[in-house]
Each structure stands twice: as structure tokens, then as C-alpha cells.
Amino acid sequence: MSDPREATLGTAAIEFIPESAPDAKAFLAVRDLRVHFPTDDGLVKAVDGISFDVERGSILGIVGESGSGKSVTSQAILGLHTGTSAKLSGEIWFDDKNLLAASEKELRALRGAEIAVIFQDPLSAMHPYYKVGAQISEAYLVHNKVSHAEARKATIAMLDRVGIPNPAARYEDYPHHFSGGMRQRAMIAMALVCQPRLLIADEPTTALDVTVQAQILELMKDLAKELDSAVILITHDLGVVAETCDSVVVMYGGQCVEKGSVDQLFYEPEMPYTWGLLGSMPRLDRTRQARLTPIAGQPPSLIQVPKGCVFNPRCRYIDRVPGNRCKTEHPELVETTTKGHEVRCHIRPAERRQIFDNEILPSL
Amino acid sequence: MTLSTDLPQPSAAEPQPSAAEIAGSNALLAVDGLTKHFPIKHGVFFQRQVGAVRAVDGVSFSLNAGETLGLVGESGCGKTTTGRVVTRLLEPTSGKIVFDGVDITRLGRSRIRPLRRDIQMIFQDPYSSLNPRHTIGTIVGAPFRIQRAPTEHGVKAEVQALLERVGLNPEHYNRYPHEFSGGQRQRIGVARAIALRPKLIVCDEPVSALDVSIQAQVINLLEDLQSEYDLAYIFVAHDLSVVRHISDRVAVMYLGKVMELTDRDTLYAAPMHPYTHALMSAVPVPDPNKESRRERILLKGDLPSPINPPSGCVFHTRCPKFREVLDDTEREQCTTVVPPLELRAEGHFVACHFPEVRADIAAAEDEGITLSESPDATPGEDPAPAEH
Lengths: 364, 388
Prior knowledge:
Radius of gyration of chain A: 22 Å
Distance between the termini of chain B: 72 Å
Largest sheet of chain B: 8 strands, mixed
Oligomer: heterodimer
Order of helices and strands of chain B: HEEEHEEHEHHHEHEHEEHHHHHEEHH
Distance between the termini of chain A: 51 Å
Strand content of chain A: 15-25%
Largest interface: A-B, 57 and 63 residues
Number of strands of chain B: 12
Low-confidence stretches of chain A: 1-22
């Protein structure tokens, strides 16, 4: 099904852009992505209509709790759902190519070379029987027509760049010889050895200690800048987002509930779920609160998504919306008064800001 | 437990402050010079001990009734092992544990059992700490049966009251663990721990497997139960912000040793140990402006091996101060002399030859107050005018 569009794009002049192509042509543009898994218990709507852009040289954070659809989104970008029972719809535009319509062969050429991924657990992401160096140079050999010696040289240079001491000797080590932090460095080396233009980091520091996390985040930021790559950082830690990202997508129950720049999200959040996240974390940078403000209840089931706003069963502010609309009508993702800041909430914007200033901010 | 002669003996010569010195003498729990070495053996028949993992290496602290002591540190620093030795789930290699006036260090099996009523544990992983084949009623009722504890209206009524207390539906008595979410499972673990009204609960990373919004629910529950039943907690965690929230006093551990031990506010506002500085500065705070202004102390490399820990101060191999500030004679001291955990200020114990107060921007208490009032002192960046 991709052929007609691909052909048009390939032959036509630049000004001829198909209507469905993203307007401003972001480097990576995800449009209305849906990933549904049919199961015996019903249809699991893991991702249900998510859109975002990432530009080269910028870092997008996707935040959410477990089961909010963060990782499924990244897997969809990598085309990892092909051949499974998953039902995908929407568009993922990467460099004028719709990845959802691309063939497995095209995707294989992109994976590793153009789009790379860093997984959460480097021990299970690496093969225990192969040497670390061999695993990294394999990625290089697949995408470059070079000799093994050259691949080895590139790998050692990359290992050196990610801060592994004595890289030539460590090339011969097996993954279990490496400590957690070093394995994650090796993972980064593996991801970046082909100088990808898009890097997806799926909870890259969750398994690491804070001191090592600081090193790894620093390294990722530096390398992304060096290669001018676009980065998608998936995390549940708002602190990591504040430290690394330029813009943020907050996901809840498979949907994007708030989207904006980091400043908008941390200083003027408007979605009650984002308030809840900020309120439930104990913070080192504030006076110690006597009590945390948790979000009541449990995350929703993705099979029976709540009617109306997906957050309404846990929201403390549904009485602020007249006519019980939170429970009956699904709110759209609407831009607030500030550009680029989108919120999915029925509460009127002025009232949202008032609630945040008067009720949320003082208790943070 | 037999130890062969070539085992490096626990550093008994090091002057460590006694537990009584660290807190009042009427402490609920006093731990003194506690060590736990896991032997490494070679050979098939005559297993020769070739070394030991010094998981806990001379830890002293004490805990009063109703108090929370936080144990923080990176993975492999011995915080979990300390918790397990204190509950006697592991045998201590040496040292002394006094609980409620009784020396429990070497108590035998039958004598330790009644003690389990008073010392309970909450585990990190709510998935593996509940038997999948037992109903919730059986799991939470187990302490009553094992201890043959008398109940007023029977075990079932007692268990249902407990379930209700921790925020679960008492009607779920007959359900199995897999029917519950992670947060609910952790509540079941809490219900089991408080069943016999213990005096001390060792919480081993009780919230690190949970989502942020659920974390706060469980933390609040633990705090409520503490004030209700006058529980003492040893709260083992790697998350410094959670530890700060829940603890009264905090011990920072590194390679089996306590590096700094003081009350919560002092530790976070005026930490003295270079390791604490580094640890604190590495915690990302959810505030982009503060993040960009922050000076981060990056520690180089990884934790050294606890089998063969560095000489002198165990932290000197990664210490930024050792690397950048100290001169050669001072360095000599760091590499040869083990710094004792010394009283450096009121109630503030530090194990460092050259401690110095250094507050991180994120942890500075006063700054925190001003910043929380208006997120940005810088004009133009203030969100208030931009909004209206």
C-alpha cells in the first residue's frame, strides 16, 4: 500500500507533498498512531491516537506510568509490531517516509543505521555468548560495507567515546564482565556506532544507580548533540525529563494527555494527571512536605478504557466541569493559550490555571 | 559457622562509635560494629575459603521506638544486607545487635522465633514476596497461625480488619495475589507485616517497584501506620528523595560502611561527606531551570569490588575531593588510614578525614522555600505574568 505514495514522493518535485504528509515536515512526525492488540479478553488499546513531532538535535521525553503505552509507541516507530497480532493505524513519518507503510526490508535497512534504540536492561539486551565488541561491530558490519578490521576500529573508537577505559582490551570481554553502568555504555555504543539520526532510549537509566544515571544521561546528551540526532527518551522519572528533554509528551491510558515544552510542563502544567504526578513525588529541591498527595485509585484497564476522559475515575476536579461531561464526553487534545502546549481536559483553561496557581503550586 | 584462618578479619581495631554513643541508651535497636562477610570458596571436597565479600563491614547505628532510619546508597553498598542481618534472616559475621534490651546476635532458632513478632519485614518485589498459590487470607493470616497469636474474633476477622486498614477490600479475603496490581500487592505485604503489631519493620525498597502515583499512596500508608502503632522503621532505599520524605535520621552507606549518619534535615541541607555531596547532586530534580543551574558532581567509574575494597577510605578511588583538592600528604592519609565515623557536629557523624559542609542547590532548605513560592526569581521566566 505504500507504493503509490512512495512513487509520488520519489518522482515529484519538492513542492508536491501529499496531503497526508505532516504540515511542517518535522524530522519524525507521528500522526494519530494507534496500536491495538486483540486478546481473548478483548481489544487492548495500548496506544490510542497519539501524535507528536521530534526535530533533529532535540530530545523528546515520553512520560507515563507502566501500562500507559510509552514502550509500545517506541516499538511501533521501530516497526517491531509487524508480524504480530497487533493492529496498527496512523502514520509515522520519518524523513518523508511513512514507516507504518514501509516493508520489512526497508525497515531493516533503517533499524540500526538510521533509527537505533537503547533498552532498559542492557544485560538481557546483549547476547551473553558473544563478546561485547563483536556485538557492536556486527551492527556496524550490517550497515556498512567494510572489512572486519575496519569495523573493529570503529567499534573501539566508539567504546572509547562512550567512556569505557582501555577499549581495545574490553572489546574482547563478554557482557557479564561489565558492570551495569559499563553495559549501558556499551549499549549506547552499539546504538550509536552507525551514527543514527533517530535514537530511542527506552528507560535507559532505570536499572542504574543515581550516580551512574547522571553519567549516562550526560553522555547521551553529548552524543546526541554531536551527531545532531533526534532523541526520544522514554521514562517514568520527571526528574530525568527536567534534566534532559526539550519537550515532553505525558501519556496516560494509551493517550497523550498533555504535551508541551519542558518549561510549560513543569511551570504551567494544566492537566490534573500531570499535577498528580508532580504532587506525588517527594522532591529534594523543595521543603519537605508533611504529606504526599497521591493520585487515588489505579491506572485504567486498557481493555475497558473509562468512558469520557480516560483520567476521570482518578481525577479530583471532575466537579469543576458542568454537566458530568468528564464521564460522558472524550476531551480533545486542545492547544492552550500558549503555543505548542496541548492539554486534554474539559476544565476551562482559565480555571485550570487558577486551580494550578491556587491549589496545586502551594502544595508542591 | 566456621571461618578459616585466612579470612580477612573484620576491622575490629577501627575506632567506631558505639551504638549508645550514636543515640540514646534506651534505644529500641542498637547495632554495634556489625559485619557480614560472605565467604568465597574454592575446591570440591575441602572447600578452602579464598576470600570474602565484605557486604557489611562495621556498621553501627541505633533506632528509637517510633523512629525511621533511612539507609541509602548505591546498589552493592550493603544496605539490604544490613536490613537482613538486623532481622536475623542472615547470620552476622561479627558485631552486636541489641533489640529491646536483649542481645539477639546469636540467638538460636527457637529463641529467635518469638522475636519475629516484634521485627517484621516488607520486601521490595510485591510479585515474588507473596505465594501465588495462597489466598490473601492465608498470606495475611500466616503470622497468627505461625506465632499461635490469640485473636479476639478469630483469624479471619482479624485479617479482614487488617485488609481494611491498609486500604483493601476485606471481601477480597479469598482472592489470589495475581488478581491484584503491584500497589495492592504491596499493601498486602504491609498488612502481613503489621499483623502482630511489631515494634520494628525493616522496609527493603518497599516502593521502588511501584509507579510514582502509587508510590505516594504506599508511603502515606506507612506513615499513618507508624504514628498509629508507634512503629520503628528501617527504610532501605536507593531513592534519596523518598528517603528524605520518610526518615527521621539517615545513614548513607558505601561499600559496607556508613559514610554519614545524621538527622534528615541536616543531611540534606548541610551534608559533609564528599560521597553524600555526589549522591545528592546526581538526583535529578523535576525543575528544568534548577537543573540547568545545578553544579553536578560526576563520580568517575563504578563501585569498587567489596571482595577487595580500597585501602584506607573506601571512597578515595572515586572521591572528587581526593582527586582535585587534597595535597599529597592528605592523600596519603586517605589511602592508608580508615576514617572512623566521627561526631563532627551535633548528632552528625561523618567518616571522612576532610569533611566539609557543601549544600547542593536542590537540597538547600532555605532556597527550596523561596523557590517553591515563585518557581523563578529571574524576571521574564516567571510563569505568573506569562499566564494572564
